[in-house]
Structure formats: structure tokens, C-alpha cells
Amino acid sequence: MRPQTADLRNGSTVTEFILVGFEHSSPSTRALLFTLFLALYSLAMAMNGLIILITWTDPKLNSPMYFFLGHLSFLDICFITTTIPQMLVHLVTKNHTVSFVSCMTQMYLVFLVGVAECILLAFMAYDRYVAICHPLNYAQIMSHKVCIRLVCSSWVFGMVNGILLEYMSFRNPFCKDNHIENFFCEAPIVIALSCGDPEFSMKLIFVDAIVVLLSPMVLIVTSYARILASILRRASSSSGRGKTFSTCASHLTVVVFFYTSAMFSYMNPRSTHGPDKDKPFSLLYTIITPMCNPVIYSFRNKEMKGAMGRALGRVNLAQAESV
Description:
Elements: H1 4-9, E1 16-19, H2 27-57, H3 64-92, E2 97-99, H4 100-133, H5 138-141, H6 144-170, E3 179-180, H7 187-192, H8 198-233, H9 238-267, H10 275-297, H11 302-322
Parallel strand pairs: 1-3
Antiparallel strand pairs: 1-2
Helix pairs in contact: 2-3, 2-10, 3-4, 3-10, 4-6, 4-8, 4-9, 8-9, 9-10
GO molecular function, one term: olfactory receptor activity
Main location: membrane
Transmembrane segments: 31-54, 66-88, 108-126, 146-164, 204-227, 248-268, 280-299
């Protein structure tokens, strides 16, 4: 496959890309990585699927926090399914080529879901702020209609922003090396392979990342700063404070994981990047964070544990009746 690079540099137009991924690893290493990532992918799918089932069917979890949490799990499932199955296939096959259209589609879906998740995390922080700082008006401010509008707006913003980023990534022709030094079509790497002036596209991607990543982060930091101030002002018991801090800490942990890896990928100069640095951060926000979200955010929650127990009880009852 490598000889194709010389032809491309002579002026041919790129019609497909080659995802280098882990092709330089030994067969035993690839087999180990396949087993590990398949286990992580299966675990992430199972845990997020369970969160969706519980939050959308258990009447005792009928609150905005769990409504947002169910949609976060759905976004996580979409995110990992966009990238990981393809990587698993490439770990066991020698053909790592993807068509131009497939690369565009994958990049758009990553943009859409990633941006939507950034916005949703900010809305979740605002929800915690209203619940803790304005408990008497919580039901009115965070009504079901408002929650639906907030979730829909995160999806719409992701779709619109994805179109802009997709255009900026593919606005120039591709006539250079078609080898992508990662396991999926990541925008900064693909833009660097384009002809013309990739710097303009990179600058716009950087500006967009500032808006998409830092604006929600400002809302998150502001919300939690006010939450912290409100908690410290109250003369509540230490156990009540501990429960509130635990809920906030869970959400902040998710935010730190997701935002840190995304900022490294889209807000750092390409001169500071390299395959050895890009892949770990790409893995962090494409599979590790979606897998950790249910553990960090849900399974420490007593209400969630109770809902899981009720769900398992219904399953066992259904099995007993079928017998």
C-alpha cells in the first residue's frame, strides 16, 4: 500500500485514505489490543445501554438529571460506535483503507456527537446549579419541556457545527500522502494531508474549538463556583454536604476527562503532536471516557443502584413466569 504515496505526490487525487492505526505493532500486540478494546467496547455498550433502559423506563428516576444522563449515555454509544468497530476490524485485517466518503461521514459523526456532548455536559452542570441553588423553583425552571428543548438544541448545534467543520476539513483538494496516523479520520490529521493552504482551515478549526469547548466550560465552571459558594454558606449537615459534593465531583470528573482530551486534539499546534501522543488522547475520549461515564456518574448513585435492583428483579420475575 505504501507505493501509492509516491503517485499521490506526483499530483494524483486522493480517492481513499489508509488508517495506519496500530499496523506497525506486532501480531501478538494487535491481538492483545483487539481483545482489550473489544472488551472495553462491549462493557461500554452494556453499561450505557443499561443506563438508557433504567433512566427511560423507571418512574422513580423521572427527574431532569436522569433525563440528561440517559441522553449522555446515548451520545456515548453513538460516539464509540462511530470509531471503535472500524478499529477492531483493522486490528485483525491487513486492509486499512477507507473511502473518501466513508472518511467524511465518520468525521462528521464524530463532530456531531462530540459537540452535542460538550453542550449537554454544560446543560447538566446548569441543571445541578438550579437544583442546589434554587430548589424551590427547580421544577418550574427545569420543566420537561425545557429539558427536551435543551437536549434538542445540543443535537442541532452539533449538526450545524459539524457541517461547518466538515467543510473546513475538506475544502482543499487532497494530493499528498493519504496515510492517516491514527485509527480514525481525525480532522487535524486529515487537514494536514490536504493541498493548498491547510493553515487557514486549521486556524478556523482552532477558533471553533475555542467556542465549542471553552464556552460550555465557562458555564460549567460558573455553575459549580456558585454551587460551591451556596453549599459553604449553608449550615447543613456534613452528610448532606458530602452527598452534594459527591454528585458534583462525579460530573466534574466526566468533564475533565472529556474536555482535556478534546482540547489536546483540537486546540494544540500540530507541531506538538505525533502518533505516539495523538493515539492515547484519541483513545481517551473515544472509548475510555464513554466507558467510565456510567461508572463515575451513575453506579455510585444510590437511586441508580436501586433502579438497577428493581430492573433485575423484573427480569428475574419474567424469567420465573416463563418457566
